[in-house]
Design brief:
The complex is a heterodimer of chains A (276) and B (409).
Chain A: E1 2-6, H1 9-27, E2 35-39, H2 46-57, E3 66-70, E4 72-74, H3 85-92, E5 104-105, H4 114-127, E6 133-137, E7 158-161, H5 164-170, E8 184-187, H6 190-194, E9 199-203, H7 209-216, E10 235-240, H8 249-257, H9 259-262, H10 272-275
Chain B: E1 12-16, E2 19-22, E3 25-28, E4 31-34, E5 37-38, H1 41-48, E6 54-57, E7 62-65, E8 67-72, E9 74-75, E10 78-79, H2 87-98, E11 103-110, H3 115-121, E12 136-137, E13 140-143, H4 167-175, E14 181-186, H5 193-202, E15 206-209, H6 216-224, E16 229-230, E17 263-267, H7 275-284, E18 289-292, E19 304-308, E20 311-316, E21 319-322, H8 335-346, H9 350-355, H10 359-364, E22 382-385, E23 391-396, E24 399-403
Parallel strand pairs in B: 1-6, 2-7, 8-11, 11-12, 11-13, 13-14, 14-15, 15-16, 16-17, 17-18
Antiparallel strand pairs in B: 1-4, 2-3, 4-5, 7-22, 9-10, 19-20, 20-21, 22-23, 23-24
Classes of the chains: A alpha/beta (276), B alpha/beta (409).
Chain lengths: 276, 409
């Protein structure tokens, strides 16, 4: 496991974006060679998306040969609802980049047969050759995607009932009205993310500090589903100083001492201009 | 375009690098167009899984809905109220020339005329969408002849009429047909006008009060019966008085149901309405303000002496006087000039200034689902403006119909 610690949210977002950018370019994607990227929603990745958009606008990065798979979507929320993850992805990422709409995959929370939709999603990932890099965020309770505490660590894409904590936290996006908050979601499983060749988890803010501690300093535990990635051969946690508040000094010092090594992953930042 | 062409095959154009007026705000957002209408790109992306065929860089300019002028008597030498002219050709000429002012639809306006003029002229003012040939025609605005003798302004006294007997039939006989009429300006104090207002409203004609000595009570009654517009506020009506505010009082009346929105026309050329009066009206009822030009046939002719009708007139900038006198004889300000003046005179937001020439006139006519906004599904009639609101280009149904020399599209 790699743990990359940056001074603040903006730097953590930029580091993550640079890493994604370099990974895509190094892959040398093309017509018969698509890079597959798993994507999260929520407030944490916003800064990372902004940077990726910037690279695209500057002509350094194209998503023409990138396929994306989103982690989750609410059930029963209209696609065009401002809080749907379709709307989120459109407004915060897709509308700004050059991805082919046929290559952007998000679970349909309004499908008539929800389990069939989930199975089809798994199949599409498989047909795309698996995920090269799955980017994720976590909740304060350590959930990855909507794999709430207690989710099986070998789970696949499926329908999940949301934890009351999550519903309460989401109420602010639905006029503070609990009855309007979706109570179910479709989500990739922990196992689905584990199958990715590489996983990058973004964790920022003091409110996620305990979850980061549970994720990396305690054992693998289905009550903190993100801890499963201790057993993934290529996992990289990108966090800010605030998120390290619950970690041991020894842990932080060790990984900070490795920053000069980790920074080689993002420096130099590649550009497609040079590739061509 | 062949009629069998289906939506999914048509070209999709994406205007990028622009601020668009949407939801009462200027936002950095792309504008997507297909088949002459504004497209929801998110729906296109997720449901049709399509991207744009063509991208057009707007160089950071503002994209606003096309301007709508609901009161314009003529321009470029054409007078819509003169029967010796070929009115069809005249309307077409004005429509073409209005494109340079960002006007994408308008209501050709007729002053008080004898019935035979209406019978001859109105059938030639056919309602039609705009195109590269010119701005769209939303229907005629007929001012008079059912107006006040005292407040007739320049309207000929001999042709004024009142409602007698079967009032509505009288009106039908006068105009010949309501088919091409969008707005009728009448004086609500005329006997039996209320039944006429009700009938016109039920037939979808917009009734405007104006050229009138109506007191507030009569004006409120008119609004309760369906009237929704005030013709050139302050002009040709009783002056505002604090014990009887007259028609002007409609702006702050509490005798009108809240859902019954009253709009009012303003000639914001800096000459016909004092900036202070403009500010009073704007601050009292900002959502009802509709900019109109009330333009004369001399609009667009430029400075100098022109012969119009029987009169020799002299145009100097926005002032238009009877030649050799200081007597104002009408407005020659274009609508984009009025938008800029309104913005500068009231210190309102750019959004507010633009909506007074777009959203508000569309709401007045009940066509805000098609015109006057850049909402999804609306007609792609829009203008490209610089930060000072100078028109750089005009589009109708997604097609470029006019552009400034300096603009690159």
């Amino acid at each position: 496991m790699r743990l990359v610690i940056l001074d603040n949210y903006d730097l953590a977002s930029e580091w993550a974006a640079k890493y994604i950018c370099n990974r895509i370019i190094q892959f040398k994607p093309g017509k018969d060679r698509y890079f597959t990227l798993g994507l999260p929603t929520g407030s944490t990745p916003l800064g990372c998306y902004k940077k990726l958009i910037e690279y695209h606008k500057n002509g350094d990065l194209s998503f023409k040969y990138v396929k994306t798979f989103n982690m989750d979507e609410y059930v029963g929320l209209p696609r065009n609802h401002p809080e749907s993850y379709h709307s989120y992805m459109w407004n915060n990422f897709f509308k700004h980049i050059d991805i082919d709409p046929n290559n952007a995959h998000i679970l349909d929370g309004n499908a008539s047969d929800l389990q069939a939709e989930c199975d089809a999603f798994e199949k599409k990932i498989e047909e795309a050759g698996g995920i090269d890099l799955f980017v994720g965020g976590i909740g304060p309770d350590g959930h990855i995607a909507f794999n709430e505490p207690g989710s099986s660590l070998v789970s696949r894409t499926r329908l999940k009932t949301l934890a009351m904590d999550t519903i309460l936290a989401n109420a602010k996006y639905f006029d503070g009205d609990l009855s309007k908050v979706p109570t179910m979601a479709l989500t990739v499983g922990v196992g689905t993310v584990m199958d990715a060749r590489e996983v990058m988890i973004l964790i920022t803010g003091a409110h996620k500090a305990f979850a980061l501690y549970k994720a990396i300093e305690e054992g693998v535990n289905h009550m903190w589903t993100v801890s499963a990635f201790q057993q993934h051969p290529r996992t990289i946690f990108v966090c800010d100083e605030d998120a390290t508040l619950e970690l041991r000094v020894k842990t932080v010092k060790y990984f900070k001492g490795l920053m000069h090594v980790h920074n080689k992953l993002v420096d130099p930042l590649y550009s497609m201009k040079e590739e061509n | 375009m062949p009629p069998h062409k289906i939506g999914t095959e048509a070209q999709i154009v994406q205007f990028t690098n622009c601020r668009i007026l949407r939801g009462h705000e200027l936002i950095w957002e792309d504008l997507w167009i297909r088949e002459g209408r504004i497209l929801d790109p998110e729906k296109l992306f997720f449901e049709e899984k399509k991207s744009a065929d063509v991208k057009k860089d707007c160089e950071g300019h503002i994209l606003a809905p096309g301007f709508i002028d609901v009161q314009i008597n003529g321009g470029f030498g054409v007078d819509f109220s003169l029967t010796h002219e070929d009115i069809s050709a005249g309307v077409a000429l004005v429509a073409k020339n209005l494109l340079a002012y960002g006007v994408t639809s308008f209501c050709p306006t007729l002053v008080t005329s004898p019935p035979d003029v209406y019978h001859k002229v109105l059938p030639q003012i056919t309602v039609r969408n705009g195109s590269s040939k010119g701005a769209g025609v939303l229907g005629a605005h007929v001012e008079g002849p059912f107006i006040s003798h005292e407040k007739r302004g320049a309207h000929p006294d001999s042709h004024l009429r009142t409602f007698e007997g079967d009032a509505f039939q009288e009106l039908l006989k006068t105009y010949g047909s309501l088919d091409n009429i969008a707005i009728i300006t009448l004086a609500p104090e005329l006997k039996r006008s209320h039944e006429v207002i009700k009938e016109l409203t039920s037939r979808g004609v917009c009734v405007s009060v104006g050229h009138s000595v109506s007191h507030l009570k009569e004006a409120e009654e008119a609004v309760r019966n369906g009237a929704r517009f005030i013709t050139h506020l302050f002009n040709a009506m009783l002056p505002f008085h604090h014990r009887d505010p007259g028609i002007v009082g409609l702006l702050t009346s509490d005798q009108i149901a809240p859902e019954q929105q009253v709009f009012f026309g303003m000639i914001a050329d800096g000459i016909h309405t004092h900036p202070a009066a403009l500010r009073i009206a704007h601050r009292a009822h900002p959502k009802g303000l509709v900019l109109v030009t009330d333009a004369l046939p001399a609009l667009g002719l430029g400075n100098g002496r022109h012969t119009l009708g029987q009169q020799e007139i002299e145009v100097d900038g926005l002032r238009c006087c009877v030649a050799g006198t200081n007597t104002l004889c009408g407005s020659v300000a274009s609508l984009d000039t009025c938008v800029r003046h309104f913005l500068q005179a009231t210190g309102c937001s750019v959004e507010t200034a633009l909506e007074a020439a777009t959203l508000h006139p569309a709401q007045l006519l009940g066509i805000e689902k098609q015109k006057g906004t850049l909402d999804f599904g609306s007609d792609a009639d829009f203008v490209v403006l610089d930060d000072s609101l100078n028109v750089k280009a005009t589009y109708i149904a997604g097609d470029l119909v006019w552009k400034d020399k300096t603009f690159s599209h």
